[in-house]
Every structure is written in C-alpha cells, then in structure tokens.
C-alpha cells in the first residue's frame, strides 16, 4: 500500500500541477499570439498524456487496495470518510473527460474552446488532491462520529468527518507541495537541457515557468508546513515528539537538527541542538513545555528514527528549494536574464529529485508518525489488515509492475523529448 | 424506495455504464490482439482511434463504483474485498497493465510499435481483466459468499473457481468483444473493408457468447441453483426480454445494420445485468448480506446522495460533450 501510494503520488502531483502550466502557457499563446508558448503547451500535453494514464491506473490500484489490504479498516470507516472519496471520484471523472477532449481535440475544437477544456483539468486536479487528502486528515484527526457502548458506530456526521481539524492544515500543505514538485521537476528538465548547451526560447520559457510555479509554491509550502507542525504539537503530541526527537518532557526545548534518536539512551545522538528554538517555533514562547516520547506508553509510540529523519529531510530539502528559488530570481531580476551559470543549473537539476524526496519524506512523517494507529487513537494498524493469503507474492508482483512502468515511462518521455528536438533542429 | 436501495441502484447503473463503455474498451484490446488478415494494421488503428479519447473517462465508472460501494456499503465492501481478493487482484493487475500499455503505445507509437512487448501486454491484459471480473461476478450471483453477521465464512476460493464461474468469466470476455465489434462497425461505416472485418468478428462473438450463456444456464440448473432461480423468479421479465433480444442483435449484425446492432448489444448487456440485480432482490451479496442491513448510517447515505446529485450535474453535461465531440457522426473530423 505504501509502495503504491509512494509511486502514485509522483504522478498525482504532476496531475495537479502540469495542467495549470499547460493552461497558462496556452492562454498566453492565444492572448499574445505567440506560437512558442503553444509549442510548449503541446509538448507538455504529450508528456502529460502518458503521466496521467499511469497515474490513473496506479490510483485505481490504491482504491482497490484500501479494501484488499485493509478490509476491517474500510468496513469500519468507509461510511464515515467515504464521502470525500466519492467526491474525488467525480473530480477524477471530470479530469479524465476534459483530458480526453484536450489531448485528442486539437483538430476538433476551436483554439479558444481547446484552451477552455484545460481549465476544468487544472481545477479538478486540484480538487482531487483536496478531497483525497481530507480522508488522510481524518485518519489523523478522526471526527464526525460517535461509538456506542458496544464499540460499534452509533452516529455519523460525514461532513464533520471530511472537515476534521487536520484538514485545515494538511490539505493546503499537500496542495501547494504538488505545485512545488511540478515546478521544480519541470525546471530540472529544462535546466538539464541547458547544461547540454540547449538554450533556445523553449528551454528558457520552460525553466522560467517551472521556477515561477516552484518559487511561489515553496513559500506557501513553508507557511502551510509551519502551521501544520504547530497544529500537530497541539493535536498529536506523540507524533510531534517523534518528529523532533524529544524524549523527555521539558520547558524551553531545543530543536535538534539531524542525528539519530536512540530509544535506549532517551536522546538524539549526533544531532545539532539550537536552544529553546523548538518551544519557540511551536508556540512563540521560548519557555513553553514540549511533551516527550517517554510520557507515552511504548506500545503507542511511532518509530522516532524514521519519523525524525524523514521530518528533517523534508525540512532540509524544502529549505534548499526555497533558497535556490530565491537565488535564481534575485539573479534573474538583477541581470534581467535567466541565470545560466553551470553551478546554478546543476543545483536546479538536483532540485527536481530533491522536491520529490521532500514530498515523500513528508508523507513518511504523517504516516509513520501516526503509527501504531491507522485511525489515530481509534484503530490500530494491526487490527485493520487483511488476513488474505500470499500477500508477499501480491506485493512482489506490484513492485515488479511499478518498476516496469516507471522505466517505460521514463524511456518514453526521453524518447518524446529527443523526437521533438530532432523535429526542431532537422 | 429507501435511500440505501436508491444508492444500490445508482451503483448498479455505474456498473452497467462500466460494462457497456469500458467493456467495449477491453473488447477493443481483444480485437487488437487478434487483428489479422491484410488489414491487421488498420484494425489496430481503428481500435486505438475509437478508444483514445474516451477510455480514461470510461474507466472512472469503476472507481466511482468502488468508492460508492465502500462509502454506502462498507461491510459488504470489506467482505467482498476478502472473499474475492484473488480474482480482483488479478483483474487489477490487468487494469494497470492495460491502461499503461495503451497510453505507452498511443503517445509514443514509434517507440513501442505494435510488435513490442507492450502491444502484446495490451491485448493479454484486456483478456484477463473481464474474465476475472466475470468470475468474481459469478461468485456473488451464485450465492457462494457466506458472511453471517458481516464476517466472511466461505474462504478465499468460494464461488469464483467453479465451472460456472469459468463459463461466466468467458461469457463476460465474449460479450465485451461483441460490444467492441459492433461499436467498431458503427465507427467504420464509411470504410467498407473494415466494416466487413468487424461484422465477421461481431458474428463470431455473438455465437460464442450465446453458446456460453446457454452453457451457464445449463450448469446453473444442475449446480448453482440460486442464479437460475433468481433470473426466473423476480428477474423473469428482464430475463425473458434478454432471451428475445439476443437473436435480434444477431439479426441486425447479420443484415448489416450496425446502428441497430449496437443498440441491441448494449440492450443485451443492460438486460442481463439488471435481470441479475432485480433477481437477487433485497440482497447485495446473497445469501447473507441484505442491502438494508449492510448500508452505512442514514447521514452518510444522504450526504452521498447530495454529492452524487451535485457531481452528476457537472458530470453528465461533461460526458455529453466528450461523446458529442468524438463519437458524433462526423467522419470528416478524423485526424
């Protein structure tokens, strides 16, 4: 399940971000009568056709796996948090319909009509992300239901479940992260092209588009991430303690960068401490109390090594992306042209994978940080799993399929890029 | 009609749409694999041209049904996910490989031409998926999944490994191929040679699916009584219409009436599915899970109806637009 999610999400975020880039590029082309923007939109749409299909089928795997792997979890919570899933189904429907019109409609629709079909794709892509993350937020902050004395569901308020407390912080953070990843991946592709000496109008515009989206989104990701962390301090203190590697409850807690949390020594080894910073960041009061892992029963704690290192990777790579975007645009504005220094281009190429790692690490934090619960405080992961046989085999088959799909997708995208280049030069 | 019955009906409509639309896409994959003769390449192109713009939207009916099922009938969903774990997982592999291989071919044709492994994967996955979905359907329809009090009691192999299930799996595959062949007849009315190719294929699929249907009824008579008794009980009107409609569809194909044939084959699928649904009556998964008893709380059902209404108001005009642009009679617009 985690593998499917980790695989699917890369395609899913591109399904959120790329349509917006295509929509803007095609809009600019029509508005300014500028053929180069149109060429870019067409190139992106070809790549998107493949990416969306792989995203669509891997998303189908997820919707099945919810039931195939977690039948008891779904039997319990389907009626509570299924609503946003159904809404996501509609959003996906709209995205698929208009993508069909967009990809195959170049010759059947007028230019304005064609551009108009890209708008619902961008909107429903974003809506899909919002709806689907609502369900994950519910697993963190289960709300909108009451249990009877027999432990069975008594009352359900599906709207309250969808708009649970975590939705307000988790949803915006994921949505802007989708634009971060799209922006930096697109920028990385064009930066790689420039490193090989291709410096035409398409590369410059592609790089600028990606960096524009990435720069705006990374700032928003920082803000929403900060809000999220402070919410977790309040709502899921054990996850917060694991993220920051705090073992002993303390006032004026330091922030620990990196290091390896050690359960036996009750502290983080080899980390860098900044005094009082954690208390200040969590509450704006440098002497506020932060609850430590030691105050929770051992059976209720997540794995602090995994959660702490994932959290620091996310923040670390996120900071790198933010500083890089700042440097890029400062240089661009001062010199009135895009920076093409080798070092900056190399940094931009690295930023693509870095943005993916940051996003995956973020999911590690929220998922492993919630363990041992699948529904925080209500249902344990071990209680929810399937009893079906041969899970190992199923797992191996899906891994093999994903590896095959990833390799083929990458090869095809490279092939498409090479073909467009040859068509352009020859 | 209660809200749980209403939602069950809507989900069944979604399943019907999936069968009629995506079923034909799987059938297209079958004809891609069995493309033959001097026009094999043109046959494959016709399949790709027909599927390209619509297959992803058609596929979403399945997602809609799955999400609707676990929202409205979480207990039944949990039971089905366990009992049919194996056939559904195999079908899922087929769905993934079919979709991905089609996209790889459609958007990078020169890179992975029809003879590449992905071309074969596309055809084979198009066969596996409807077959295993058919066996899973047979397990439900034959009343083989026992789940007293919502706890699965019949294990992981009940119902979908029987001779009846194999025949119904093959029938599903044949009817998908039949649907695809009649759609392709309509879409190639202006290309006489291709029209004749797909007519021959439609006739073959008609005979195969007809024989399999009769075989399934015969096995059911001796073996899984429940299917036959529900079809001839509450479902008798629709079942009777299906028996009359079958020859009509074949007549239309035989006499070169592609448009009548298309309507008749769609009607055949609709009649069979609804005869089954009506026949098994108040049960979602006979013999233990009633629609009313496995439904989610009323608040969830009502909220789901609101979501479906709002979603439907956006969805239906969008779908209309999609099919209007790509499927209206307009051969000049071919690219």
Describe this structure in words.
The complex is a heterodimer of chains A (426) and B (335). Chain A has 426 residues and is mostly helical. Chain A contains 13 helices and 10 strands. Chain A has helices at residues 2-32, 35-69, 71-104, 111-140, 158-162, 167-195, 201-235, 237-244, 277-283, 304-335, 342-368, 381-384, 391-425, and strands spanning 145-147, 153-156, 250-251, 255-257, 260-262, 267-269, 272-274, 289-290, 373-375, 379-380. In chain A, the strands form 5 sheets. In chain A, strands 1-2 form a two-stranded antiparallel ribbon. The longest helix of chain A is centred in the N-terminal third of the chain and has 35 residues, at 35-69. Chain B has 335 residues and is mainly alpha-helical. Chain B has 13 helices and 2 strands. Chain B has helices spanning 3-33, 40-51, 55-72, 74-83, 85-107, 117-141, 163-187, 192-222, 225-232, 236-254, 258-279, 291-294, 298-327; strands at residues 283-285, 289-290. The chains are: A mainly alpha (426), B mainly alpha (335). Chains A and B meet through helix 2, helix 3, strand 2 and helix 13 of A and helix 3, helix 4, helix 5 and helix 13 of B.
């Amino acid at each position: 399940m985690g593998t499917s999610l980790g695989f699917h999400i890369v395609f899913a975020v591109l399904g959120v971000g790329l349509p917006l880039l295509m929509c803007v590029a095609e809009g600019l082309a029509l508005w300014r009568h500028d053929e180069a923007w149109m060429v870019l939109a067409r190139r992106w749409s070809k790549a998107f056709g493949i990416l969306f299909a792989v995203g669509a089928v891997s998303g189908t795997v997820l919707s099945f796996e919810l039931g195939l792997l977690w039948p008891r979890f779904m039997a319990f919570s389907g009626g509570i948090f299924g609503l946003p899933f159904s809404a996501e189904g509609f959003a996906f429907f709209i995205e698929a319909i208009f993508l069909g019109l967009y990809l195959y409609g170049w010759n059947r629709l007028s230019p304005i009509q064609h551009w108009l079909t890209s708008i619902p794709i961008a909107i429903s892509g974003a809506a899909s992300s919002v709806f689907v993350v609502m369900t994950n937020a519910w697993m963190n902050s289960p709300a909108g239901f009451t249990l009877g004395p027999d432990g069975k569901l008594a009352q359900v308020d599906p709207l309250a479940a969808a708009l649970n407390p975590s939705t307000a912080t988790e949803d915006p953070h994921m949505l802007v992260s989708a634009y971060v990843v799209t922006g930096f991946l697109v920028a990385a592709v064009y930066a790689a092209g420039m490193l090989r000496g291709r410096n035409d109008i398409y590369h410059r515009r592609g790089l600028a588009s990606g960096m524009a989206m990435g720069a705006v989104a990374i700032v928003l990701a920082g803000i929403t991430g900060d809000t999220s962390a402070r919410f977790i301090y309040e709502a899921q203190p054990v996850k917060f303690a694991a993220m920051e590697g705090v073992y002993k409850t303390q006032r004026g807690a330091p922030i620990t960068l990196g290091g390896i949390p050690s359960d036996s020594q009750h502290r983080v080894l080899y980390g860098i401490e900044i005094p009082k910073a954690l208390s200040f960041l969590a509450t704006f009061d440098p002497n506020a109390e932060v609850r430590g892992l030691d105050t929770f029963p051992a059976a209720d704690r997540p794995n602090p090594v995994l959660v702490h290192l994932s959290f620091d990777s996310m923040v670390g790579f996120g900071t790198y992306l933010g500083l890089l975007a700042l440097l890029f645009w400062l240089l661009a504005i001062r010199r009135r042209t895009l920076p093409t220094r080798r070092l900056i281009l190399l940094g931009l190429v690295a930023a693509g994978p870095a943005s993916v790692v940051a996003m995956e690490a973020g999911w590690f934090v929220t998922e492993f940080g919630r363990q041992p619960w699948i529904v925080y405080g209500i249902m344990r992961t071990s209680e929810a799993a399937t009893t079906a046989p041969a899970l190992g085999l199923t797992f191996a088959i899906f891994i093999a399929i994903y590896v095959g799909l990833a390799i083929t997708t990458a090869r095809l995208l490279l092939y498409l890029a090479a073909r467009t280049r040859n068509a352009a030069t020859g | 009609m209660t809200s749980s019955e209403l939602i069950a009906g809507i989900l069944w409509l979604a399943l019907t749409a999936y069968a009629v639309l995506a079923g034909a896409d799987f059938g297209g994959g079958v004809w891609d694999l069995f493309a033959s003769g001097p026009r094999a390449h043109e046959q494959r192109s016709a399949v790709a041209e027909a599927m390209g713009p619509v297959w992803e939207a058609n596929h979403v009916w399945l997602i809609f049904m799955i999400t609707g099922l676990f929202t409205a009938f979480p207990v039944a969903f949990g039971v089905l996910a366990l009992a049919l774990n194996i056939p559904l997982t195999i079908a899922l592999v087929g769905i993934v490989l079919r979709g991905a291989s089609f996209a790889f071919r459609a958007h990078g044709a020169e890179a992975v031409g029809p003879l590449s492994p992905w071309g074969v994967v596309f055809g084979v996955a198009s066969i596996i998926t409807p077959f295993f979905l058919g066996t899973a359907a047979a397990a439900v329809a034959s009343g083989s999944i026992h789940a007293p009090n919502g706890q699965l009691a019949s294990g992981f192999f009940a119902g979908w490994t029987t001779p009846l299930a194999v025949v119904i799996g093959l029938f599903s595959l044949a009817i998908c191929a039949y649907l695809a062949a009649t759609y392709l007849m309509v879409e190639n009315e202006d290309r006489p040679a291709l029209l004749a190719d797909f007519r021959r294929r439609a006739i073959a699929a008609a005979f195969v699916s007809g024989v399999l249907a009769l075989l399934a009824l015969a096995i059911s008579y001796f073996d899984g009584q429940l299917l036959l008794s529900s079809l001839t009980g509450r479902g008798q009107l629709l079942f009777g219409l299906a028996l009359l409609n079958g020859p009509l569809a074949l007549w239309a194909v035989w006499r070169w009436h592609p448009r009548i044939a298309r309507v008749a084959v769609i009607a055949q699928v609709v009649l069979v599915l609804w005869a089954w649904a009506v026949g098994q009556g108040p049960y979602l998964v006979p013999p233990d899970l009633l629609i009313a008893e496995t439904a989610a709380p009323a608040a969830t059902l009502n909220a789901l109806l609101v979501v479906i209404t709002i979603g439907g108001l956006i969805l239906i005009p969008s779908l209309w637009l999609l099919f209007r642009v790509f499927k209206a009679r307009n051969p000049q617009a071919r690219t």
